[in-house]
Amino acid sequence: MLTTLAELLLAPALVGLATVASRRWNEQVGGLVSAFPAIVGPLLLITAHQHGAAFTARAATGTLAGLVALGGFALVYARIAQSARWPAALASAWVVAVALSALAGTFADALPAALVAAATSLTVAYLALPAAPSDAGRRPPVERQDVGKRMAITLVLVAVLDAAAGRFGALAGGLLAALPVLASVLAVTTHDRQGGVAALDLLRGMLAGMGGFMAFCAVVAALAEPVGVGGAFALALLAAVSAQILALAMASQPGLPHQSSA
Question: For 109, which DSSP code?
């Protein structure tokens, strides 16, 4: 019950926060905000309370392996969004994400393999993103009503995903938790309202910020048992915040490759 309630509250809240950040600054900052492990962190902590450190370590490893699917989703969606509308981009990206998630299940119980696969997938996806055109023009602003719309869609999707995850164990639940539900909501609504270049910027920021997410899961997976839940989560939070601050600092630097103005 606690896990379900946390998901239903935290996931829409993070989407809302990312939307506000996009509206206040730009889509790339919104993507960075959406990558912070504000959902997986509390969920893993609740899992530790309910099932113990060993179960939590396996769930964190599964989530880490599942980031392979997120990398594939972001790359495929961003590329197709430059020449097609959101239904084609979303369908293609989800086909790739599901296939990669199934592949990740073969090594989801091995932390070194999961970490290497996640880091490789996210890095390759980021580097392979298309360059934003210099003549993209002005984009429609993110409207206030978009915040509520995105949060409502996320609530429904997370509820469905949670019902599916409840039928499986730690590793399968971790893989499901890494599926690009939030990325789908943000990418589709941004693409539909502001165009493919805006969706590209959003996904670029999201991939750039996934270092914090990856660090959080890796630290929990590695230290939950030998250090204990409290120490592992404290160190994981420190690692995630440090990585996120670094990503935000890098995103604010002018003249970075592949970066476009909002």
Answer: T
Under 8 Å between Cβ of 194 and 68: no
Nearest to 133 by CA among 205, 198, 191, 208: 198
* Residue of 147, 145, 144, 142 lying closest to 15 (CA atoms): 147
Mean pLDDT by runs of 10 across the 262 residues of the chain is 56 69 74 77 76 88 91 96 95 94 86 94 95 62 61 62 54 59 86 91 91 93 93 93 84 51 35
Q: Which residues contact 207 (CB under 8 A, 6 or more apart)?
A: 31, 35, 71, 74, 122, 125, 126, 129
235: exposed, middle or buried (Cβ count in 10 Å: 0-12, 13-18, 19+) = middle
Judge whether 111 and 188 are in contact, CB under 8 Å.
no
